[in-house]
Design brief:
Blueprint (H helix, E strand, L loop, with lengths): L2 E2 L7 E5 L2 E4 L2 E9 L14 H14 L3 E5 L12 H16 L5 E5 L3 H10 L3 E4 L7 H10 L3 E4 L17 H18 L7 E4 L8 H9 L12 E2 L5 H6 L10 H13 L4 E4 L2 H16 L2
Parallel strand pairs: 4-5, 4-11, 5-6, 6-7, 7-8, 8-9, 10-11
Antiparallel strand pairs: 1-4, 2-3
Helix pairs in contact: 1-2, 2-3, 3-4
Length: 290
C-alpha cells in the first residue's frame, strides 16, 4: 500500500476493471531488468523463475508496482528485436500473474511488445521514448486506455550521453512535456492516465540531474503524477566517486529519492525496495508525528 500523506488525498490512476493506483502517498516501483546488460543488475534475473521470485520478493517488501524490462536502456545500449524482448519478459509476466495481482508495468518502446504484455496481464506502459519511437504505440495506449509513463530523453540510449547540452534543462523538459501531453490529448488519451518522468540520467549531465531534483516541483504545473528514477545511477558515483559498483550506491539512491519525494515525486522507481520503503516510513512518521 502507498504511504499516505494528507496533501495527496483523493488522487488515483485508473488501471481498468475498476482498479486504481492510490496516489494518497508515494508509490514504490520496483525495477526488474530481465536483461544480460543492464547497468546495475544485468544478468541477475535472466532466468524467468529467478525473475518471478524477485518480483514476488519486491511485492512482499512493499513495492506497489513492478516494472519489467527486456531491453537495456543504459548509455550506449544496443537495441534488441521485439521478438527477443518478448522472449525475455513474456514468461516473467505470465509467471507473476499466475500467483500475484501486483500492478505490473512494462518498460518498452515497442507497440507489439507492449500489446502482448497487456494481453498477458500488464497494467502500465513505461515508454522511455514518450510514444515517439514506435508510431503504433500512441494508438495502442489510446485504444486500450491504459496508464502510460512519458519520459524525457535526448536522442536514444545509444547516443544520449554524447555531450548533452541545455540552456535551461528544466524549462526545456517542461516544453517537451507540453508537446507530449498535447499529442496524447489529440489521440484521445485521457490525462488521468498520463505519468511524467523527467528522465534523470537520460541525456543529462551531472549538473542537469541535480537541477532536475532541486526544481522538480516545476513539473507539477501539468497536474499529473511524477515518476522519478535515480536509483544507482551514474551521477551518484560522479558526485561521490568510489570504487564501489553501481549496486552499492544505496546511500546516494536513498538521499536522491527522499529529495525527489520532498519536491513532488509521486512514484519512485528503485532497485532497493525494502530500504526505500523503510526510508519513506520514517519520512512519513516525521512529517505526520506518528
Amino acid at each position: 500500500m502507498p504511504l499516505a500523506t494528507k496533501q495527496k488525498a483523493g488522487r488515483n490512476i485508473p488501471l481498468g476493471q475498476g482498479r486504481n493506483l492510490d496516489l494518497s502517498g508515494t508509490l514504490v516501483m520496483g525495477v526488474l531488468n530481465v536483461t544480460p546488460d543492464s547497468f546495475s543488475d544485468g544478468g541477475r534475473f535472466e532466468d524467468p523463475g529467478t525473475a518471478v521470485n524477485r518480483a514476488l520478493e519486491m511485492e512482499q517488501q512493499g513495492a506497489d508496482i513492478i516494472d519489467i524490462g527486456g531491453e537495456s536502456s543504459r548509455p550506449g545500449a544496443i537495441p534488441v528485436s521485439a521478438e527477443q524482448e518478448w522472449t525475455r519478459i513474456g514468461p516473467v509476466i505470465e509467471g507473476i500473474r499466475s500467483t500475484s495481482k501486483v500492478t505490473l508495468s512494462v518498460d518498452t518502446c515497442k507497440a507489439g511488445v507492449a500489446e502482448a504484455a497487456l494481453d498477458a496481464g500488464a497494467d502500465i506502459i513505461n515508454d522511455i521514448s514518450a510514444l515517439r519511437e514506435d508510431p503504433k504505440m500512441v494508438e495502442l495506449v489510446a485504444s486500450r486506455q491504459v496508464p502510460v509513463v512519458l519520459m524525457h530523453m535526448l536522442g536514444t540510449p545509444a547516443t544520449m550521453q554524447r555531450d548533452p547540452k541545455y540552456d535551461d534543462c528544466v524549462s526545456e523538459i517542461n516544453e517537451f512535456f507540453s508537446e507530449r501531453v498535447e499529442a496524447c490529448r489529440r489521440y484521445g488519451i485521457d490525462a488521468s492516465r498520463i505519468i511524467l518522468d523527467p528522465g534523470v540520467g537520460f541525456g543529462k549531465r551531472v549538473s542537469d540531474n541535480l537541477e532536475i531534483l532541486a526544481r522538480l516541483s516545476e513539473f507539477k504545473r501539468f497536474g499529473l503524477p511524477l515518476l522519478v528514477g535515480t536509483s544507482r545511477k551514474s551521477f551518484i558515483g560522479m558526485v561521490h566517486p568510489t570504487d564501489a559498483s553501481a549496486s552499492e550506491r544505496l546511500g546516494g539512491s536513498i538521499a536522491s529519492m527522499i529529495t525527489a519525494v520532498a519536491n513532488g515525486a509521486d512514484i519512485v522507481r528503485v532497485h532497493d525496495v525494502a530500504e526505500t520503503v523503510e526510508a519513506l516510513k520514517i519520512v512519513r512518521a516525521i512529517k505526520e508525528g506518528v
